[in-house]
Specification:
mainly alpha, 25 helices, about 70% helix
């Protein structure tokens, strides 16, 4: 029996759901970040002008240039093999930042739609749209850079609803003391980035940059098929879940999850201090993370002079570290919660401080790494790695505060935080326009440091992760009171209609 029980745990529906979300997050980020590495080979090599209006500074030494770094002659030869475009830094900034222009617009609607139509449909369809637009980028590039910007805007508009819908799914499936570990599935984004950069670097060197969009788009099709066949909105709706697992999940979650038709207490959400403190922390985290994710390939290529394969490899390693640190922090956080070693609020504060303050300190070190390639690699790994603790911090805190409205609250947070992605890319474009130097990139990283440290410190002093009163609707409060007089009706109400007979079977004297 023990071996059968272990087998059931290994193939539990919750575990399958974790892997679906993990790979879905990876595919989602692969489809949106593949352009970050591809654009390095999509644009023509820009030479410094004789009048010094344009400055291009590479820090690598002759030793590097003779070995692992790309030489100018190699770069020129590679340009003859495929089409490249004369996009300057400002145009590249618009292309990279275009994703975030309307990324904010569908954050809140994503949470609302997930509550109304179910997270399976919302997450599946938004990722499929992201995939279709990805496949169209090579064609758009041949027309005009503005067409690429338009596609990137559509990608951001579609992807904006993804994460809020997944938060609703987590609230439906995962008990409170298990959420830190489960939310690490969101860190599939790190695997997506870690794999995308070196993988796309190889694709570019083998088949040219258009292959990046076609092959990653095909991977998206495979994931979408698995998602549509295996994912379900709640334990009650899953046709193949065991009765034991279903009852175990629903008993642990209890009745804090209300029906889909629950009205949203907008005023209380928008006036909630804990909500806004977490949103501010998310803003700082996203500014730092988007800066590294979007700009790392360009930084390593133009400042440290690495070739496309090495650039992809160096840009991907930090995201692997992000996943590892996220998992380790989640295990530690859930251990503290399950053993009552620390309050839920303090656990979330600890993780968020590691995310914002820890990431900020590494970002500051990166700013002063100058031409030291080894230091730049180490500090970029540290900065990206520390951002992974957000899964046990602010992200999990949104569900702690309000499981019913976690998707909507995260939507508000991402709506505001998504603006940081656009502003960051736009700012980099302005600061480095015809001026790709260590000094300008130092300003980029110092600004990111400030954006991380300030919200991280404020969160440490003023945040809270307690369940908010406005999470529970009035009718459920009444049912809590009635439970003292007549517990059986309320107990039935806490579970969907189709599971009532299962509960009665488990509560007979014989089973007791």
């Amino acid at each position: 029996m023990s071996s059968d029980r272990k087998l059931k745990e290994c193939i539990s529906v919750q575990r399958i759901l974790w892997w679906l979300i993990f790979f879905g997050s990876a595919v989602n980020y692969m489809l949106r970040s593949n352009l970050n590495i591809a654009i390095v080979s999509m644009v023509e090599k820009r030479q410094p002008k004789l009048n010094n209006e344009s400055q291009v500074e590479k820090c690598y030494s002759e030793n590097y240039s003779n070995s692992t770094n790309a030489t100018d002659s190699e770069e020129i030869l590679s340009q003859d093999d495929e089409t490249r475009y004369n996009w300057d830094e400002k145009q590249q900034g618009l292309i990279l930042g275009g994703f975030f222009w309307l990324f904010w617009a569908t954050q809140v609607p994503g949470g609302i739609l997930a509550q109304r139509y179910g997270p399976k449909m919302v997450y599946g369809l938004t990722t499929s749209f992201l995939m279709v637009f990805c496949l169209l980028i090579p064609l758009a590039s041949s027309l005009d850079y503005r067409v690429v910007v338009f596609l990137r805007v559509l990608q951001g508009f579609s992807a904006g609803a993804s994460m809020p819908s997944i938060h609703r799914l987590t609230a439906n499936w995962i008990p409170p003391n298990e959420r830190s570990k489960f939310v690490t599935a969101y860190m599939g984004t790190s695997v997506g980035a870690a794999v995308t950069y070196p993988f796309c670097g190889l694709l570019i060197s083998w088949f040219g940059w258009p292959s990046v969009f076609y092959i990653t788009g095909a991977i998206g099709v495979i994931w979408f098929t698995a998602w549509w066949l295996l994912a379900y909105d709640s334990p009650a709706q899953h046709p193949r879940i065991s009765k034991e697992e279903k009852l175990n999940i629903m008993n642990k979650i209890g009745d804090v999850i209300a029906p889909k038709t629950l009205s949203t207490p907008w005023k209380k959400i928008l006036l909630s201090r804990p909500v806004w403190i977490n949103i501010f922390a998310e803003w700082g985290y996203l500014w730092g993370f988007y800066t590294i994710m979007t700009q790392a390939p360009t930084y390593f290529k133009l400042i440290h002079g690495w070739d496309i394969q090495m650039t992809g490899f160096l840009s991907g390693i930090p995201h692997l570290a992000r996943l590892i640190i996220s998992v380790l922090m989640s295990i530690f956080a859930d251990y503290l919660l399950n053993n009552d070693s620390m309050s839920r609020t303090n656990v979330r504060k600890m993780a968020t401080a590691a995310c914002c303050i820890g990431q900020g300190l590494f970002m500051l070190a990166l700013a002063f790494s100058d031409c030291n390639s080894t230091a730049a690699i180490v500090f970029s790994i540290g900065a990206t790695g520390m951002s992974g603790t957000v899964s046990s911090g602010a992200l999990a805190s949104f569900i702690d505060m309000s499981p019913n409205f976690a998707g909507i609250i995260l939507g508000i947070s991402n709506m505001i935080g998504g603006v940081s992605g656009f502003l960051s890319a736009y700012l980099v474009g302005i600061l480095t326009y015809q001026n790709q130097t260590v000094g300008q990139w130092k300003l980029v990283f110092i600004i990111s440091t400030i954006s991380l440290l300030v919200p991280g410190i404020l969160h440490l002093f003023f945040s809270s992760s307690k369940l908010q009163d406005w999470n529970t609707p009035t009718e459920q409060i009444i049912c809590h009171e009635l439970q003292k007089l007549n517990p059986e009706p309320n107990r039935d109400r806490a579970f969907p209609q189709e599971t009532k007979h299962e509960i009665k079977e488990t509560s007979t004297p014989q089973n007791k």
